[in-house]
């Protein structure tokens, strides 16, 4: 006796059972599509998903469905696929050669399979959402840990930008800071491409995007290249983008931007929510990291201040007392034979006291990065000399000293200035020091140059002013030196002149 084919209901249940036991979404949907073609006798079946979030599974078809018949002759059956109340695509049947049109029973079978497809896609969405949440939570925790252990601010911003870029599957992770003019400037960029030309790009003041960001609201763009709200010079590279304020305790630290390439997948509502939460957590971590560094700096200041007090209370006072004893010894009868030795010892103690006081002054100042410009370096030298002199030397600058004077020339100028100030401090009777750095006046031979002049009103031990020239060894050097001999100004004094071609 010939076995009867299994009833359609049995085969439908088998198809649904097979679809429900596999964890891979594409395999599940493939089984649904194959089952639809088999149960209805269709020549071709396809699952077409129109939702861009499911772009990876669009167009699943039965193997080798053959060419689709012409629309006017081909039977066609379409059933929508829903995830909850949202229609995301449709399950299609095409081509039924020699079997006539599809029946109502065929449509019922297709609706059951379409419902199963919707359930499978919805479950996959829930699973992926849970995985996304887990990744973003882990990423936020990793950023917080990294920020609380790293030292530099630039490293902290790079950490936030790099981690956010990877979590969001973005083309770049960008940190922007508000500018003094009211705009925003890219200060950190993480991208597989060269980020150098991105850093420094700005959003112009008055942009509608800035109004939202400065107000603490995130900005979501479908296409950065064409959105009229965007004004940066690098916007043409990117498509979908999120711009998230880094805000903590009501204070806007900056903005985290996560653009994707043009034509890239739009951000989903879940991705937008998770990225916004990540930005809030990152902003708080940045504030905590900055507070930690502030506490560490305060501890350093307190330690330096303690060392400075100890030097003053223990070392300086003892040196000063020793110097006073030596001075009194020099004045006693019969001390002439050791007068030179005592004088030398007193001078050494005075020099040591000055050096220790300079060290105390430096310890009492906040540690800072060395100034890079020549103007800043000159002012730093004058501030250091002020502790030894008891007053602040005056400094005057002519011309673009920071941009015109190259590094090696600036180094030699600072060395000369340091020596000149040391000599002025050593004289002990100085009440005025004037420093001039001129990068605008040409040298005697017409070449562009820079000139340093240091004048002080002190005198050497014999009461006469002196000169300490240092320069290129030309006739101009001798002329400048001659101008300082005998004081160089009414009332005497010492002038040091140095120059160099640029």
Q: Compute the separation of the termini in Å.
A: 109 Å
By DSSP (H or I, 4+ residues per run), the number of helices equals 11
Average per-residue pLDDT, rounded, comes to 75
- Uncertain stretches of 5 or more adjacent residues: 1-5, 63-73, 462-488
**Number of DSSP strand runs:** 14
Order of helices and strands: HHEEEEHHEEEHEEEHHHEHHEEHE
Cα gyration radius (Å): 40 Å
Sheet with the most strands, sense and barrel status: 6 strands, antiparallel
Give the percentage of residues in beta strands: 15-25%
Strand order of the largest sheet: 7-6-5-10-9-8
Helix content: 40-55%
Q: What is the global morphology?
A: elongated
Structural class: alpha+beta
Helix and strand layout, with pairings?
Blueprint: H1 8-20, H2 25-40, E1 44-49, E2 60-61, E3 76-83, E4 86-94, H3 104-147, H4 153-168, E5 173-178, E6 184-190, E7 202-203, H5 208-214, E8 219-221, E9 238-248, E10 251-261, H6 269-330, H7 339-364, H8 374-389, E11 394-398, H9 401-404, H10 407-427, E12 433-438, E13 449-456, H11 475-484, E14 494-501
Parallel strand pairs: 11-12
Antiparallel strand pairs: 1-2, 1-4, 3-4, 5-6, 5-10, 6-7, 8-9, 9-10, 12-13, 13-14
Helix pairs in contact: 1-2, 1-3, 2-3, 3-4, 3-6, 4-6, 6-7, 7-8, 8-10
